[in-house]
Design goal:
elongated; ARB-07466-like C-terminal domain-containing protein; two-stranded antiparallel ribbon; ARB_07466-like_C; Muramoyl-pentapeptide Carboxypeptidase, domain 2; alpha+beta; Lysozyme
Length: 348
Amino acid sequence: MAVVILAPFGASGDQVTAACPPGMPGDVHDPETRGPLRAVQISYAKIIDQVAVQRGLPGQATLVALMTALQESQLQNLTYGDRDSVGLFQQRPSAGWGTVRQILNPVYATEAFFGGANPPSPPGLVDISGWESMPYTVAAQSVQVSAFPDAYARQEDTARGIAEEAGIDLNRSGDPYAGRSGGGQNGGAPTPSQADGECGGGLINGRPVAGNWPPEEQTVPDPTGTGGKLTPRTAAWVAAARTALQNPSMSCWDAHAWNPTSDHPKGRACDVFVGGDSRKLPAVRAKGDRYANWAIQTAAKTGVRYVIWYGKIWSARTGQWRPYNGGGVYDPSDATGGHYDHVHVSMY
């Protein structure tokens, strides 16, 4: 436990400089680490696994966490990073992960990565429905919302090697949703297969999204090909959504002359199309639920302000869905006006 106490207070000694600049994926052929760095990695791996074991999480959760920490910090408790990112998982205080001092506590940082009923507000692994059935890199990306979503995959072999040296059982069984609000998979956010509730189908609520989202100018050409420009935050959301949602059809910038209050001409909104009127097609409804739920689950990291889908609107301020009345502009009974054929996502 000496590593826990000493490592946060400096980047010298056992703490080795990361091989890649923060946020940049390394080369798949990076040599295997040995010596002091390997010893540090094994120490932190044991701490991560101890948190997982105490939670009752399966070994698979430990593997995802190790892959994530290896990519983000080379499994070191870094006191620096991209912008205000620090710690094993390069979590950002400005995104609601906690204070710098909290994040530099490896136990706290690991608990935050795994997520659950306790603070902080960004969703962790257990808050992601179906994470245990996802590829490891997709599960990691669902928490981290990285600009390099495929980079975690390259760390699997290294993570397994460190786990073996640390005596960690990655085949350990457990509850993949241990610690989630209400307990278990069905105690937290419902999945799209559950019966209709107040908000309909598999729509989840969430927690109010804390965080500071300063205004941004429209400086990035819209990657969806509209010819307009988006804010950097919106463009980053498009990139993350394309990866996490398997490249769905979407459109962002639009003049929207009939609606002067729209976020589309401001470069702060995107429509994700589901392929038809979801009131008539259950499979399309489930797809839209999945898109909307992902936007909500990652809102604390991406800066989603509100989501409109299936006659409902979700607000980051309240973390809740309520009926959508068309905003005085649209016919909420229409497939497009009521957002039954697309999911609208607006950013801060």
